[in-house]
């Protein structure tokens, strides 16, 4: 019994402190009055004896309680429990702590826990019991780590009285965890860094400034890695506008802490260049393979460039993480890539027996324009082609009817069921105006085709169509209709008036009548379409909204809320809106309000909540809506949320806006 008592520890700190204070106080009294001092001393001694006996009694009672626990084990095992060299804690089933050994007391640094509840003191242990876990790994307490074994034991308190207790064994794994973290910090980090617009920047500057611009960019890159990060890193320039670097994860975290502010430092290069330089970087992280890290870095860089550049993209553990990307894409002057794409696409079409064209959910005018343009290309090559439409936007109804009235197109527009019956192994599938698998109008179509070509003008999302043979995505383009019309112009194909007008309508819708996201190449394409008899005034007539839509639009605007003094938010609580075109128009209209830099409109249509975002370029709505599963461009973006209430959708959106604003402040 005596040996067992040594394994119990009770906290006398409060009594001891009080006893010492009493002695000091009594010493002072003795100095002034011996008689009163002796009386006080006698009382202190009696109090000390009482306290000592009381604690011995508590000690004995608790020891007897522990020793009477059946725990379904024999007395030898019970003795082992009491002498166990690892920390042990026992609590009632409701979480009340009733006992722990000396080792555990050292672990919690003499903190008195008996009588307290796990829910308040050690909530992770309490949660483990509620969830029925038998093991809790890497439980952290006071900078130490433990693997905790959790056992529920049955205790007999009497002949017919049973209860359950929680028994926790703590195995100290602090050294292992710290070693593991140290090892993890040595993970291989491989990065590719490229100057997005090297040629355009130099071409925009006087000849005498070009060498200075090159030197300044290189100086800022090397300074950031070697002087600002100040860690072990290997940096090499392997082409005039390309770098690679290798470091460990510890160095990577230092870059991340700075939020890769090299992005902003490069944009500050101003030596009479009219175009601001930007960079993109792809980073791959692996535990043991530099080859795989390099492949991941290449994938990340491709993602960064396909999203418009001016950003760092990290590809780690199968997931992408994005930093930057807040600069508006600049139109590429060179047409080499588009000409190569035109030739490549034509060759693939030639070697396909049937061609099918699909778009995103609720086929819109840009989708239809691209589909009609590609149909013309295929027909011109003598191929059998079909436009597959499942759901469509009301704005295309007039144009769709005109196509169905046209003898050449009336049999080209089909549904999914018919398309799947007609396809063969050598058939080709075009996906236009989206590259997200979740946004495709008929996802089943993607799974059924071996040959897929994607043509899009949005930033690449994380769930892009990876199996595509070609992903022709140009984020600078105003619309996918512009990209397709440009391909047709290279081939010198003569368009019918209806075909040209549908293509032009697609461009006009996405550019808001040539007022947004337009470049030189947009007007060149428009000229080509005008030469093929497309009339803008006729298109405007087709696109006029009816009175009901006009009234509904103004009703929605009356629900306006302002966030952060420059963000407009409209929530359609009436659920009167049944057309996502109205949502987009309201978002556009809100930007006309003075002081508004971005707008969001939230409407519930059937089981989905649609969110439309617009910006004047000062706020990146694509980055905001990407946080909730959407996407698009810096100035135009959208999101679709399933199985969620409109209030929940508002909460999710506002949270994403707050995160974006906080990130912008910290960058």
UniProtKB/TrEMBL annotation:
Per the entry, which co-factors are needed?
Mn(2+)
What reactions does this protein catalyze? 3',3'-c-di-AMP + H2O = 5'-O-phosphonoadenylyl-(3'->5')-adenosine + H(+)
GO molecular function of the protein, one example?
A: cyclic-di-AMP phosphodiesterase activity
Name the residues that bind Mn(2+) 2.
Answer: 366, 433, 457, 510
Could you tell me the keywords of this UniProt record? Cell membrane, Hydrolase, Manganese, Membrane, Metal-binding, Transmembrane, Transmembrane helix
Q: Does the keyword Metal-binding apply?
A: yes
Report which superkingdom the organism of origin falls in: Bacteria
**Mind telling me which SMART domains this protein's record contains?**
GGDEF
Which GO cellular component terms, listed alphabetically, does the Swiss-Prot or TrEMBL entry include?
A: plasma membrane
Spell out where the chain crosses the membrane: 31-52
- Membrane topology reported for the UniProt record: Multi-pass membrane protein
Its annotated function is as follows: Has phosphodiesterase (PDE) activity against cyclic-di-AMP (c-di-AMP).
- What's the name of the protein? Cyclic-di-AMP phosphodiesterase
Q: What is the species listed in this Swiss-Prot or TrEMBL entry?
A: Caldicellulosiruptor obsidiansis (strain ATCC BAA-2073 / JCM 16842 / OB47)
